[in-house]
Write a structure and sequence with these properties.
Largest sheet: 8 strands, mixed
Organism: Sulfurimonas marina
Shape: globular
Catalytic activity: prephenate + S-adenosyl-L-methionine = carboxy-S-adenosyl-L-methionine + 3-phenylpyruvate + H2O
Radius of gyration: 17 Å
Helix content: 40-55%
GO biological process, one term: tRNA wobble uridine modification
Structural class: alpha/beta
Number of strands: 8
Number of helices: 8
Keywords: S-adenosyl-L-methionine, Transferase
GO molecular function: carboxyl- or carbamoyltransferase activity; S-adenosyl-L-methionine binding
Order of helices and strands: HHEHEHEEHEHHEHEE
Distance between the termini: 39 Å
CATH architecture: 3-Layer(aba) Sandwich
């Protein structure tokens, strides 16, 4: 289904409700530059670091598209677990999992409070930016503590620049991309207002610093387009 969420006036902050869940896959592909490519890179590193009977957690799994893609290419037995706090997203995820007959588990839960088992890999696709900065570092430490030695955390985030002009130009570049995907100026403005104070991005440097100060030995960017980046952090 095509994303038409912001073609009408929005009177509330952005939330992952049924209306968004219904069009979320289309929204991602049209709103996130090179989304499929970043997902391929994420899948590559997950599979490279996955051991027999290992565990992978996808934090904010939405409709479970990435876990389904990973499941298709598994070469060993593994536990693929998706967590989300949106019932609407998980309802669609469960339908997709059932349709594909996939061995993927999804759960309704708070990723800040969930009791994780020792895992080979964690994934977070544009999820951290929705976590309040005051508790974001606690989540990163919890992820690091739950990983095996040399386990990986692959996360994608919208990023900012602390150079005012460059940051403005990056945003303009991104809006040009959205227009090329068929979004109108009105839709772009509406979504920006709905996300105000809901989505709080860090810079590339701040994301790396956060990982290094909370249990990871190394962190770097493996993919970037303008103000969108995919990171890998190694315990």
């Amino acid at each position: 289904m095509n994303d038409k969420v912001f073609t009408k006036p929005i009177k509330k902050q952005f939330e992952f409700d049924e209306e968004v869940a219904a069009v979320f896959d289309d929204m991602l592909e049209r709103s996130v530059p090179f989304y499929k490519e970043s997902q391929k890179i994420t899948k590559f590193f997950v599979l490279k670091n996955l051991s027999e009977n290992g565990i992978v957690y996808d934090l904010g799994c939405s409709t479970a598209s990435l876990l389904l893609n990973i499941n298709r290419d598994l070469e060993c037995k593994a536990n693929l677990i998706g967590l989300d706090n949106s019932e609407a997203m998980l309802a669609r995820a469960k339908r997709k999992i059932e349709a594909f007959g996939a061995d993927v588990q999804v759960e309704l839960g708070d990723i800040l409070e969930y009791e994780y088992k020792e895992a080979d890999a964690f994934i977070s696709n544009y999820t951290l930016q929705f976590i309040r900065p005051l508790v974001r570092e606690k989540l990163i430490k919890k992820i690091a503590d739950s990983l095996k030695k040399e386990g990986v955390f692959i996360f994608s985030e919208k990023v900012i620049s602390h150079h005012p002009k460059l940051n403005k130009d990056l945003i303009e570049c991104y809006y040009d991309f959205k227009k090329e995907q068929g979004y109108s100026e009105y839709e772009i403005m509406q979504k920006r207002e709905a996300l105000e104070n809901v989505l709080v991005p860090y810079s590339e440097e701040e994301n790396i610093k956060m990982a290094l100060e909370n249990g990871f030995s190394h962190c770097e960017v493996v993919f970037r387009w303008a103000n969108f980046a995919t990171f890998i952090a190694i315990k």
